[in-house]
Amino acid sequence: MSGPERRRVVITGAGAVSAVGMGSEALWDALAEGRSGASRVDLDGLGPLTAFVVEGLAEGAEERFGRRDVRRMDRAGMLASLAAAMALEDAGAHGVPAERLGLALGCVHGGAATSFDAHRALIERGADRVGPLSVPLALTNGAGAATARMLGLRGPSTVVTTACAAGTDAVGAALDMIRAGRADAVLAGGAEAPMSPVVAAGYLKMGALSRSERPPAEATRPFDRDRDGFVMGEAAGIVMLEEREQAIARGARILGEVAGYGATCDAAHPTDPDPAGEGAARAIAAALRDAALTTSDIGYVNAHATSTTAGDIAEMRALEAAGMGDVAVSSTKALHGHGLGAAGGIELVALLMVFARDLLPANINLDDPEDAVALDLIDAPRAVRVDAALSNSFGFGGHNSCIVVTRHATP
Known about the structure:
By secondary structure, this protein is α/β, with parallel strands linked by helices. The chain has helices at residues 24-33, 57-65, 67-70, 75-91, 112-125, 134-138, 142-151, 166-179, 197-205, 244-249, 278-291, 309-321, 333-336, 343-351, 353-356; strands at 9-18, 21-22, 39-43, 47-51, 101-106, 157-160, 185-192, 235-243, 256-265, 300-302, 328-330, 359-360, 376-377, 382-383, 388-395, 399-406.
């Protein structure tokens, strides 16, 4: 006797906040134009550094939420709340009770700048000068708590911290919430505000960040032979996931269907990926199984490719091992930066462009492509219609996560 039919989950709204602008359309425009949001910034003790910073973030948050509430948020909370509000508005009149509307957010560094400022205040000025909200704003769940508070989300709420796979794992968690009937809609994705001297210094010391002297827009070079590390960025990308029949019944515009999710762990090195990409390949295969699709169904891959020497090669090998050698591949990080815990969220919003505009974003700065593995690396925006796409996210600790999204045809 067969069990009940599995609930299907669709995307009915998308919100993005990044260095290229506010909103999903601003992100898609930048991807179509190949326009980078990179700039040079100064961090205490480090000097000039290439990064992706959101201009006017506090002002935009104050305009929407008011100064009093914004003063009770870290920058990660502002990013998450703004992107989630955009996704909620984009979804339209959903009619979901607050108790059935959940949140699943990827965030790794939490209130990194808040932690740094509190520590400096303690050392330089004494314990009584540490801010009374320094702990709740610095906690990794702070951005999620701020978002739920600002939008009145009273359903299941979780914050995922699986390094750079966190945003995609959060979407997977949201998918499971709706499939299991614990929620009817979930705001899901990631947010990160990592611009703290301690965070940047740590990544520099381990050799993960780019030290390129190129112009900022040219520093991040996924899949290029001259890549030398990632460039981190503030970002938030959040989508509204909704039970399909409910969305159809209310006449919602459906941006895509989250058809499958897969996750694995390398259980090996603290930071380095499995050089053969075996764990990542298993995550891809798991996502395809969950979606009941094969590799031949996938028309585009939004790669995790961060512009690190080892990471990009490992992902290329994973794609080859998973049977994706002929699929069009690009990484969008050279345009919006590596959002760390936000990466899976902002890149899921980026991926939706392939359905909304029938356009595949390009790998910019791909002057001398890595050829260790033969892949179809997109070197210019490609106008083509695809019906299924894959988004990869891989993180320190060996976390591998993949999402399959399909074009939705309303019956």
